[in-house]
Amino acid sequence: MQLRNVGDEIPKTVVVVCPAQRPSVEQGSTKAQQCVCVGGGYYIIHYSMYNGAVSKPIKISRSGLKLFLECPRCFWLDVHHKIKRPPGYPYTLSAAVDYLVKQEFDKYRAKGTLPPVFAKADALAGQAKLYPGEELSTWRNNFKGISYTDPHLNATLYGAVDDVLEFSDGSLAVVDYKSSGSREITIYDDYKKQMDTYNWILDAMGHQTYPQAYFVFYQVDKTGGGFQNVLPFAESLHAVKVDISWVGLAFERAITTARREATPAPSPECVHCNYISNATKYNLPILRATDSDKDYVLVEGD
């Protein structure tokens, strides 16, 4: 059976298919609220009621969606069981640069002018301004950010932006600050996906979005011959084309995976899952930290 349109009747028994799982689901008669083709004659069918009860709400961040794309198993362990990957080192210097740039740009925002890094760009001069809306403080908040709740999925996708440009036609462009000590500026694929996701959220919130997003890079200048307690940066602006076409389906797949009871397969490229898989081949003892171990000394467990 193929359901092609919103409003198509769903009989008592229907096969609901997603890229991550193909279970048979018993469901009382209702109507499809959203049908998305995934190829091969299969469709994802979304409905608010699942076996007579509303699914529990799920809220994932932009970094959570990134984790799902990297490895569905690590994402599932994080969302489903609150088991997180070992954390890396915090980017405290990058966070400090972000904080200072926001302070500097907010001064230009208050005056209604563009910072020089934007004003020098022909496509922006006279066409855009720093977004002055009061909600910007919420959009920048790491725990709130811009967010959209899909009522059919009963799930929210959110993320905190660094800044936003508003063009003369009312469209919004996301701005992100990046700091780097590398010789060459590299805009990684994950950076582009970050902007795609933010634009998808703004679009879902009802905002008109600009077809490009902007990175302001702060690159350490290493030509000074010394440090002298000052770290100079070269400032540059880089525009990227936005593509939001993939975000909605990725969000749906992530939520479907999060609500699974069965453990999904890991990504073959996941270094974390591969490490665990390789280490367990040697029947190593399980190590755990006791509650009283303030210095995180590991002791052998049972």
* Strand content range: 25-35%
Q: Give helix % range.
A: 25-40%
CA radius of gyration: 23 Å
What kind of sheet is the major sheet? 5 strands, mixed
**Ends distance:** 51 Å
H/E element sequence:
EEEEEEEEEHHHHEHEEEEHEEHHEE
The count of β-strands is 18
Taking pLDDT < 50 over at least 5 consecutive residues as the criterion, the unreliable ranges are 1-54, 293-302
Inertia-based shape: globular
- Identify the strand order in the major beta sheet: 10-13-14-15-16
Task: Tell me the number of helical segments per DSSP (H or I, 4 or more residues long).
Answer: 8
Q: Which structural category do the helix and sheet elements fall into?
A: alpha+beta
- Report mean pLDDT, rounded to a whole number: 82
Explain this structure.
Among the domains are: 1-54, no CATH class; 92-244, no CATH class. Helices cover 28% and strands 26% of the residues. It is built from eight helices and 18 strands. The protein has a five-stranded mixed beta sheet. It starts with 8 loop residues before the first strand and ends with a strand.
